[in-house]
Amino acid sequence: MQEILPLVLNGADLTPIQTVPNWDRVPWLEEKRLALVVDQLKSPRGMVTHLPYHLMPPSFHASKAKVIYVMRDPKDVAVSSYHFHKMAQFLETPATLDEFIGRFLQGKVMFGKWTDHVKSWRGSGLGGRILFITYEEMVQDLAAAVGRLSAFLGRDLSEEATQRIVEHCSFNAMKNNCMSNFSLVPKVYMDPDTSPFLRKGIVGDWKNHFSPEQLATFSSVIRKEMEGESLE
Fold it and tell me: Which of 50, 54, 168, 209 is catalytic?
């Protein structure tokens, strides 16, 4: 989404994704670097965050900013987070996947519980200001997802522009783009030798990691905590 958003907003001009690191072209709301680059961004500006709704700043609530909320199968989120915790030198390295799954379900990982996060934004009451989309949708049909995003943001993209975005926002394209794959980050912060930041990008990689016992425990906890919640 961090790759797609600026291209939807600028009509598929590839210059930013080829010349500007992603953390500067669509900065993180929770990082200090935001203050250094935010005033250089052309309106409408795109920003990203991992924050739950209740931690969003007052300026957000007073604005008319639109929100695109990306959800993903929590099992794949857990696996992705496990590998990220292993390669991020500023996070505690998990001892085992089993230990990490326990921490993930308890919310004792970066950005807390998946269930709390999803429910915070699902219950935000933002109405037409928020669009919910899944990672799985984007993997299955990126062109259709770009169409949803452009309609939500009021951008009239041509078929050619849409296809240009699809081509340059594929996982393989991003993995080979040094402006997008975090290879410019010093190894003291992220060690790609342990795990690349852009690892696989597939749907269902949890099947290569979870044991039947882990799957049963994980599914039971998520199902109980999301009882009564619709993810449609």
Answer: 50
